[in-house]
């Protein structure tokens, strides 16, 4: 006996119809399709996960190693050279570098003429920031232990701003005599910084404010330093930028060698502290303080070294600083000497050592020694 399936029975159990019926009767079937929304959310999730992964790698391999290194740094006073004349052991010359520099020792060694003034030392900053009171205490302690009563401070570019604040601490907070402060192309305030350099510093401050790890990031430092050298590899005509790739490669190698992996390169946090010292305008305040009579000490001499042609300094408007120095410490009864060597640029004694050493010996040394041997009586 055989049974035959009725055609309607076969249709009732058709799998395609069953799936269609399930779709029609499931919860939310009447709502609009969310397929596109789900796809967009999935893509956003993938992007977020990728960003988190990249940020984690950036934090682990770029920020944390540098943060650990900076936590172990301290300011130091490094011996550089003994005086040429044994009678000059009564004076210590302390050199300080400017924005982007950490260790003044190479600069001080490029200036053997400083040995005519006395024993030469160099400041190595704390890479986490600048504390001028700590630096002043280091200098006072070292000179006291060495039996050196007189001090000459030298500051290159922004290092002059730091030197002036250190000078105020030494002049009013110690028993050492501050003989002179030598300022090499130093901006007395933010207005003395040329607009392009000022904007780069402002951009860096802005990045420090919102980018996590910016104070320690070597990637950020690399990008900033390469951008600052763009005139060496980029030629812009209107909206078109022509890139010289061999020159760009050379700049990248230079930045990696001198600014990213060098132990003598300043951290972003130190650069921030240095730039903020200029923004705060403390140099003018310190100059006024040093120009006032002290009850127990004569006023220190102030020496300003600048290019004869102001246009050769692309960072600082030295004419502006020159005029401000005349108003603050110059005049008939002032203590200012302005020296204008030829062929120098912005605070570049390591690049133009002959010019710097020549004026230090022929002009600055006689002025400082005359000032030191015939001190102005306190008023």
TrEMBL record:
<keyword id="KW-0812">Transmembrane</keyword>
<feature type="transmembrane region" description="Helical">
    <location>
        <begin position="40"/>
        <end position="59"/>
    </location>
</feature>
<keyword id="KW-0378">Hydrolase</keyword>
<dbReference type="InterPro" id="IPR000073">
    <property type="entry name" value="AB_hydrolase_1"/>
</dbReference>
<dbReference type="InterPro" id="IPR029058">
    <property type="entry name" value="AB_hydrolase_fold"/>
</dbReference>
<dbReference type="GO" id="GO:0016787">
    <property type="term" value="F:hydrolase activity"/>
</dbReference>
<keyword id="KW-0472">Membrane</keyword>
<dbReference type="Pfam" id="PF12697">
    <property type="entry name" value="Abhydrolase_6"/>
</dbReference>
<protein>
    <submittedName>
        <fullName>Alpha/beta fold hydrolase</fullName>
    </submittedName>
</protein>
<keyword id="KW-1133">Transmembrane helix</keyword>
<feature type="domain" description="AB hydrolase-1">
    <location>
        <begin position="126"/>
        <end position="358"/>
    </location>
</feature>
